[in-house]
Every structure is written in C-alpha cells, then in structure tokens.
Specification:
Layout (H helix, E strand, L loop, with lengths): L5 E5 L6 H14 L4 E5 L13 H7 L5 E6 L2 E6 L7 H8 L5 E5 L8 E5 L19 E6 L10 E3 L5 H13 L3
Parallel strand pairs: 1-5, 1-6, 2-5, 6-7, 7-8
Antiparallel strand pairs: 3-4
Helix pairs in contact: 1-4
Amino acid sequence: MPHPPIVTIIGTKKQGKTTLTVKLAAELHRRGHRVMTMKHGSHTFNIDPSTTDTYKHYHEGQAERVAMVSPDKFALVERWSEERTPEAIAEQYLSDADIVVAEGFKAAALPKIEIFRRETGKQPLYEPGSESSTHYLAIATDDAEMKAHVPVVLFSDPEWLTTLVDLVEREVMHR
C-alpha cells in the first residue's frame, strides 16, 4: 500500500513549527479529514522516562519493540539500525490517514511549508533555485518583503490558516 499524502512543516529552531503543525492538523480535522502527524526528533528524544517499567524493558531488557498500552492510548517504541524515511514510516504505521502533517524532515523530497519569523533574526531556509525549493508548497511568515516562487502567506492576513489548508487540500490531497 502506498503512503498517504504527506506535507512537511519546516523551519529553523524557535520559528513555530509545532504551533503551525498543530493548527494545520486541527483545521484539517475540523474539515472532516483523518489526520495523523509525525515529528522528526534528535537521537536523544525520549518519550519514556527512566523511572518507568517500559524504559527498563527497552534499555535494560534490550527489547526490539516495546508497546505501551492503556485503555485509551497506545505507543510503540521500536529500535532500528538506520533512520527510515517519512514515506516509509507513513506507509507502515499511518497508512489509513487522509493526510499526514510531518514536523521536520526538511531533507525529504515532500511538499514543504516553511515557517519563517523575521523577528527571530534568523534567515529562512528557502533558497530560490535550490533542489529543496522545488518541493516548497508555501512559506508562512511575518515578513511582508519575502519573495518566492510559491505562495507567501502572511500571518497578518486573518485568512492565513484557511489559505494554507486550502492549499494542502488542493495540492497535496488533490481534493
């Protein structure tokens, strides 16, 4: 089975990637889509603190996979020897999604929305003419001077979220 449609939210640190990911996911859900998300983490991410039994299963017991199960949630921590692509993860674990909103994965050849806030003093990731820029869907920004070959959606526009979600539905989900 092929992977579901995926859009990635990219940007440098402290730009608002998580906030944008959550807002996009919530609006897509509100519109009736089955939304799933994934986040690219560092080698040090840990969803299971050292005080838990499941941590002991994974680290002391060297279990290949540990499933954490409660009446209303399920989580799986799985060991692998090399990083998998977001497409492979979506195909294996999120295949029944209408749309996957992924935070990070800036090197992936997937549709991208960059969030860029001028106020942080950093530079955008967007580089006109670069290989990465060919995968851009839009740039969400507070910088009214930004120019790009894709839509530049300004946070000052009260319809900015609607514009982005319409774009994802049309260009990524083909609806």
